[in-house]
Each structure stands twice: as structure tokens, then as C-alpha cells.
Amino acid sequence: MDNFLSRVRTLTHSSIEKHRLAFNRFEWPEKIQDDMWWHSPDALSIATSAIENDWSEEQKMALAKWECINIFSLNYTGELELMQEVSRIMHEVKLGEAKEYLHHLIDEENQHMWYFNKFCQTYAGKVYPSKKIQLEKQKLEKPMDHFLVFARVLIFEEIGHYFNVVNARDKRVEPFIREINEAHYHDEARHIAFGRQVLEQLAEDAIVDDNAADFVENQLDKSIAINIGSIYNPQAYRDAGFPQGVLLREKLLNDPSRMFIHEKKMLSGVKRLLGKCGLNVMEETAA
Ligand SMILES: [Fe+2]
Ligand SMILES: [Fe+2]
Predict the structure, then answer these.
(1) Residue 132's pLDDT is what?
(2) Which of 63, 176, 256, 261 has most Cβ atoms within 10 angstroms of its Cβ?
(3) Which domains are seen in the chain, by residue range?
(4) Beta carbons within 8 Å of 233's beta carbon, 6+ residues apart
(5) pLDDT tens for residues 66-92?
(6) Ligand 2 ion: nearby residues, β-carbon < 5 Å
(7) DSSP labels for 68-110?
(8) pLDDT digit string (tens) for 116-127?
(9) How far is the CA of 185 from the centre of ligand 1 (A)?
(10) Band of residue 136 on the pLDDT scale cut at 50, 70, 90
(11) Which residues make Cβ contacts (< 8 Å) with residue 121, sequence separation at least 6?
(12) How far is the CA of 16 from the centre of ligand 1 (A)?
């Protein structure tokens, strides 16, 4: 516990020192032109897939706009859920003084929600609603409940982080959008470091036997499938001019090269950590 507390103390300090108030941080342009990359071509949901080369540069740019809106919408709706869940358990979770960090987490997510929502509404006139199927709410023992809350948060944040990283470092991406990805990247790097520490801390009380491990693995496999699935939004494909969005989504979700990106670029960190907690979450297999 001592090591854990001292690491979280460092993160708390860093949140206080480094976090910049988002509300007056950015110069919001009046408009973002459609002939700019709103999202890195490397971060597109068709990138590296078998069908990527069938798309013209113009079509990719149209898709980039709506996938930027999709990922920012997912950030917004996911952060809202994260805040609700973390607030629900924050005064009972057994983290000692490290609980203090949860106030910084919620504070920072509140600001992220503000800018992602404002961005989508201002430049696209909408936020895509969350399509996440509500996972069945069960009455769980507290240690299990708390572990699952933080594990789901970590899955969501590590996938989101992939997009922050790729977009922040790609010079082709429109500068204001890069700036938002970069700002989010810095805050999320701390949240992910915190989340990894917390899960190791909570694992012992939550995963008490093989049954508990099976249950958690099953729950987290579902969470991973939902989070990965939400990257492939049929409505975003339609908005970008591709009417057969559902078909495209199915094709991409089963594309080996996309599955490689899910496993190796988006989920490898969280899966390694879950492995350290004695869990074995599944590799994706083509349907
Ligand atoms: Fe965030
Ligand atoms: Fe976060």
C-alpha cells in the first residue's frame, strides 16, 4: 500500500501542477473547413484494412470528419458514465488517502466533457448518442463492484488514448483538433497511470477465487467488445456518404488487420495489467 500511496501522491501533485483550466485554454475557431483532416488518416476505422485502398483521399477526408465527431462523442458519453460510476463508489472504495485523486479525476473529466461536447455541437451540430448496451446491473459485493468500475474505466481510457496519441502527433491533422487531442493526452496519461495502480490494489479483495475470476473475465470481455464496436459507427459512415454503414462495420470488425490494431495498439496495455491481476481476457476472433 505504501508504494501505491506514494505513486498516487505524485499523480495528485502532477494534476495540481500541470492541469490547465480548459474553460479558457483554447482559442475556438469559428469554423473548421471540410477540406482539412479532422482525424488522422492513420486513425480511421478503415486504416490498414483490406478495403482501405478502395477509398479516395476525398472520401477518407469526409470519413475523418465524422470519425472525429464519433470519437469525441464517445469521449463525452463515456466520461459522463465514468463520472457517474466513480462518484457512486468514491466514498466507499478502499484506497486510503489515494481516494483524494478521484476528485482530480472527476474535475478533469468534467472539463473534457465540456470541450468534447462543445466541439461536436459547434462544428457538427450534434453529438452521436451512446449506443452502449447497458450491461446488466447486478447486485455485487463491494470489492467486485469497485474493481469492475475501475477496470471498465481503464478499458475505455486506454482505447481513447490510442486516438489521442495518433492524432496529436500527426501534423496533417487540423491544428486546433491536434491541440485538443494533445491536451486530452496529457490528462489521460495520468488517469491511466492511476487506473493501473488502482486495479492492482483492488484485485486481491475482488478476485478471491476461480469463480470470481471467471465472472470478471466474462464482464470485461463484454466491455471490450462494446468499446471496440463503438469505434465503428454506422451513422458516422452514413454521414460521410456511405449508406451501407452496418455492412461496413461488420466487415471492418472482422478484418484481421483491424483486429491486430485492437489487440496490439489499443488493448495491449490494459490486457497486460489484467494479466498481472490474475485475469485472462480473450483475444478477439473473427466471427
Ligand atoms: Fe478524459
Ligand atoms: Fe480520463
Answers:
(1) 67
(2) 63
(3) 2-14+34-276 (1.10.620.20)
(4) 67, 70, 128, 131, 245, 249
(5) 999 999 999 999 999 999 999 999 999
(6) 157, 188, 191
(7) HHHHHHHHHHHHHHHHHHHHHHTTTSS-GGGGHHHHHHHHHHH
(8) 999 999 999 999
(9) 8
(10) low
(11) 127
(12) 16
